[in-house]
Amino acid sequence: MAIAFPPGFLWGSATAAVQIEGAAHEDGKEDSIWDAFARLPDAVAGGDTPEIAVDHYHRMPQDVALMKQLGLGAYRFSTSWARVKPGDREVNRKGLDFYSRLVDELLEAGIVPWLTLYHWDLPQALQDVGGWANRDTAYRFCEYALAMHDLLGDRVMHWTTLNEPLCSSLIAYASGEHAPGLRDPRAALAAVHHQHLAHGLAVEALRERGTRQLGITLNLTNAVPDQPADPVDIEAARRIDALVNRMYLEPILLSRYPDDLLHDVREHGLAELIADGDMEVIGAPIDFLGVNYYHDDNVSGHPLGAQARPNLTPTSRAKASPFVGSEYVTFPRRDLPRTAMDWEVNPDGLRALLIRLGREYPTLPPLYVTENGGAYNGDSVGEDGRVHDPDRTAYILQHVQAVADAVGEGADVRGYFLWSLLDNFEWAWGFQKRFGIVHVDYTTQVRTIKDSGLAYSRLIREGGRAASDTN
Ligand code: FCB
Predict the structure, then answer these.
(1) Residues 6 or more apart whose Cβ sits within 8 Å of residue 210
(2) Is there an atom of ligand 1 within 6 Å of 427 CB?
(3) C-alpha of residue 229 to centroid of ligand 1, in Å
(4) What number does the ligand 1 atom closest to the CA of 427 have?
(5) Residues 316, 425: Cα–Cα separation, whole Å
(6) 121 CB under 6 A from ligand 1?
(7) Where would you tag: which of 132, 214, 243, 336 has the fewest CB atoms within 10 A of its CB?
(8) pLDDT for 221-250, tens place per residue?
(9) Span from the CA of 241 to the centroid of ligand 1 (angstroms)
């Protein structure tokens, strides 16, 4: 097929502060909710913690050199609120300095810094007063965003407010799998609304300071009814679409919550939280939408049969459904290949999603795929000094092809960020799941570019051509 990537298409890779930095209590940094959560019994697989992670805090210049070697055009990273404002008190000069040095190093290497302000690591001190269930946290976030902008506004052009608010609300406050590990549906919906508000307040404030590239990253899905003609499955898929996609897209793009969603969650107090003027703030215009895509969701309204394989979970700690008001929905397995996360591999889902967004939201800003990638078992450095990971390479090339197809069909996609640059701390899975295109030996911290990293690097240098070559 013809190569459909527009000129200037951004090829990048992504990480997040908690997952790579380490130095969790150094240079003034205090606990984030992930430090505290990881200390709870059975919260993280293997008792792993973000204390050292992959020591990026101390190895940053070498890691940027690796990015340059790979030929990355952009690097998506997050800043740690608990490092920059420990305990959400005054700004910590040493914490700020780290990000200032990172940005300088990136610019020096010709790599666009793509900054995310919140990738799930609330200062624990704010959690102690209710976290995102407390409306005040939205205003605290805005102050933190301004502190970051004071420091980096002259050098960072692309600002993302939140990463995947679905995970830091429903999965964190209703399911309990992510920090702070609560199982409280009401608090989860309060977190949704207050994170939206935080986003809108920060967009308004940074816009006022002259920022031109402001956006948010959402993890979106195609909710597919298991039996396409079964009204029970169709209804279940509608509910998942409302909770995963439209509960985020509509407030941000259209200044409103969907009516069907408000009805589905009517017993859990969302509507009551919306103060006068909130929706206008939340819908402040944005310049790009980040889309994280890993897999679709095959949805049913029927109980799974007794033979069904149980969901893979990281630990035996008690968890509940993240799907507030629709806890009964099930996710039957389809006959598709799976990654080590037990996630379906379905590249065409990415194409379909990118197309659908443009079709359903006429005011949609340009899109960037801000995360996509695969965890596979068995990565290790062989005797030849290489890491052979053909499944991950195939995953990447197929998904890049899907992006090319979407662009060819008219989707306005301007960049692709691979998750992840480095193997890292995969939240409740600890160090068990490796997503990196660079292997990290967790004992020695030695980095080795995997075959998938070499393939991605070739693809970047050829402007995306390698993707089509696989077909
Ligand atoms: C996303 C997260 C990212 C990483 C990938 C695998 O949900 O944003 O931090 O864990 O999944």
Answers:
(1) 153
(2) yes
(3) 33
(4) 10
(5) 18
(6) no
(7) 336
(8) 999 999 999 999 999 999 999 999 999 999
(9) 19
Measuring from atom 10 of ligand 1, which residue has the nearest CA? 426
Dump pLDDT digits (tens) for 373-393: 999 999 999 999 999 999 999
For a mutational test of ligand 1's pocket, the pick from 164, 370, 371, 433, i.e. the residue with the most ligand atoms closer than 8 A to its C-beta, is 371
Residue 94, φ and ψ in degrees, nearest 5: -65, -35
- Asked whether 435 lines ligand 1 (CB < 6 A), one says yes
Count CB-CB contacts under 10 A for residue 129. 12
For residue 36 the two structure tokens come to 């505290």
Show which residues are catalytic: 164, 371
DSSP 308: P
Peptide bond into 420 cis (omega under 30): yes
Q: Tell me the two tokens of residue 229.
A: 């003609």
Cα of 171 from ligand 1 centre, angstroms: 12
From 164, 343, 399, mutation site for ligand 1 pocket: most ligand atoms within 8 A of C-beta: 164
341 φ/ψ angles, rounded to the nearest 5 degrees: -80, -5
pTM confidence score: 0.98
State whether the beta carbon of 98 lies less than 6 angstroms from ligand 1.
no
Q: Nearest 5 degrees, angle CA 125-CA 81-CA 111?
A: 165
The pLDDT of residue 465: 74
User: Which residues partner with 77 through β-bridges?
Assistant: 115
Lookup result for tokens 């279940």: 236
Q: How many CA atoms lie within 13 A of 188 on its CB side?
A: 29
From the CA of 219, give the closest atom in ligand 1: 7
Instruction: State the sign of the Cα–Cα–Cα–Cα dihedral 63, 69, 70, 74.
Output: positive
Count CB neighbours of 197 within 10 A. 25
Alpha carbon of 61 to ligand 1 centroid (Å): 24
**276 SS3 class:** coil
Three-state SS string over 49-78 comes to CCCCCCCHHHHHHHHHHHHHHHCCCEEEEE
DSSP symbol at 233: H
